[in-house]
Amino acid sequence: MTARILFSNVRLLDPATGLDQPGRLLVEDGVIAGLDLPDGTSPEGVETIDGSGAVLCPGLVDMRVALGEPGYEYRETVAQAAEAASAGGVTTVGVLPNNMPAIDDPALVRLLRARGDETGRLTILPYGAVTRGCRGEEMAELGLLREAGAVAFTDGTRAVADARTMRMALSYARAFGAMVVQHPEDPSLARGGVATEGELATRLGLPGIPAAAEAVLIARDLRLAQLTGGALHIAHVSTAEGQALIARAKADGIRVTCDTAPPYLDLNETAIGDFRTYAKLSPPLRPEADRLAVCAALADGTIDAIGSDHQPCDADDKRLPFAQAMAGGVGLATLLGVVLAQVHGGGLGLLRAIEMLTIAPARLLGSPAGRLAPGAPADLCLFDLERAWKVSAGQLPGRAQNTPFDGRALEGRVLGTWKAGRRVFG
Amino acid sequence: MADGFFAAGGGRHLLGLQGMHPTRIEPFLDLAESYVLLNRSRKTQRDLLRGRTLINLFFEDSTRTRTSFELAGKRLGADVINMTVSTSSVNKGETLLDTAATLNAMRTDLLVVRHAQSGAPALLAQKVDASVINAGDGTHEHPTQALLDALTIRRRCGRLGGLTVAICGDVAHSRVARSNIHLLTAMGSQVRVVGPPTLMPAEVERMGVTVHHDMEGGLAGVDVVMMLRLQRERMTGGLVPSAREYFRFFGLDATRLALAKPGALVMHPGPMNRGVEIDSQVADDPVQSVIQEQVEMGVAVRMAVLDRLSRAQMN
Known about the structure:
The structure holds two protein chains of two kinds. By secondary structure, chain A is α/β, with parallel strands linked by helices. Helix content of chain A is 29%, strand content 22%. Chain A has a single domain (59-365), classed as Alpha-Beta Barrel (TIM Barrel). In chain A, the strands form four sheets. In chain A, strands 1, 2, 3, 4, 5, 16, 17 and 18 form an eight-stranded mixed beta sheet that branches. By secondary structure, chain B is α/β, with parallel strands linked by helices.
């Protein structure tokens, strides 16, 4: 007996083809069987889901997620992260390698992929470490990692600081057709800092990181990308200067792409308030002028994709004086809602917004996900563009609760998520 | 951002002076002044804090501030306990909140906190029922120091507004400088910060001060010269090349002091590095140096703080 689901009365949205129209979608045996069936056609023996005009789009592809596994299971296990992902409409994640141990061995890449598959609700696309142990010294076995299924290379939340190491990585990774993803912050300029240098950090007495720490590393790496012909991807761009450098490099034909994360679109440094450690991120939140520049770069196409930069922290990682608290915020469950705030604000079209959460990151990672194509696995996200809700730390799905958006009212909520045709949320 | 006490509406903690309400300063200093007189008369033991427990929770060594709070508490009749937590055992920050929970269970009334991390007293204040008094947190604030400086200035100059005050030295790492900037600018005085660019915090001018990188320009015509301590670890490596170079360009000696107004006050929060930021001749000048008077005012100001906070608790 074939399992069939018919989504009716939905607004079909598929940025891969530019589709945005009311219609229906049929799923058979976990695979998309047909789109835009003419009205009146009613296949027999189907479960019908009436979307009441809600948007049906590909399951979201979140290209930047840190997991607690392996090594930090007390922060969040794969199963708990998968629960948060499903609630956020996310069905595929790119996972950072700087865990304990670092994902610098082919067996670990396979392990992570398998851990994702075990959940039945999440595809894990592991990044391989650029350097052994993500220590920034000797190059990891990029070829073997790639063969095992690593989608790209990065040292995760650690920048590859050494210029020669970065040059070699960009150069060598070319042979395996994968990009090198950089955390754009010069570690020596950032040393000891916990907030963007400026009036706010000065008033709070917090050691500052100059915003230029981003531009310094981006400028260097762009030059190295040019030198090597390698594919460079700059993660979570957060400054006006950083995005401007990338825009110019793109115009010059350098192989560079970049993403940003919702906090840099939606929050500025004042979210720190009186030492709120949930707003301690890496890179740190920026002044309003930088936030506006990032929004503009999103609108003008300089920024290629949006990743949540999900970083689970335990309560004890955050209940510390600001400078000692761990940096990072959870983002899986709020990814769509915060990006839709840009749509509601008029800064971004809906199709383009969903593109940056589906097909754009999927292409960067060489994944077939993120499409509503007949024959593709039925990874789907059904969301109500208007439904209002409020982010509340303590009430989020998954384990970790360290959201920088605590208290933020959002419009746009996931109603249901399907992984290979199986309902995993809603 | 303002925390109680000097903020509109008052409150039960003293965490900092940013955002304070300037009209609350003069009456507070009047109260502190009354404690100066009481202390000098030696009839100081009062019943105000009888039965109350004050804990000095110091995560950083500071003999003088701790002693000052201890005296202030004892002179008001409180039971005072000193806890100095060794810095090595607080690297695991859980200790901070564990300590808070413990002190809370002991029903502490007043908690005086010194910590190397900016914001640590604010974090504690969220977790305890006691009134928290910030006795210096990282490079953030040191409100009682600024209040005692204000009392000293007001006694000598007769007012807190309309003065020009130079704060000199390692402004970047100084909580004393920040609290003084908040207080003095709110009271209508002009504040200059003087020091090498590497010891200036970013965008400090947005706190309402003017920045000078040479002592000659910075001290010209000022009413008050406030020197800051240069921590030993800042003298080598990166920020300034050496102690002798620092003294050559940013130390206070008689020649430089002569650029200030005649009779200008010389202040220092202590402890001093003689020959690094200040010359002994200036530090010990019987007329212009008010460094010892600052110490005396410290006890009176802290008595006034304990007085106000304990009354706020009763309400």
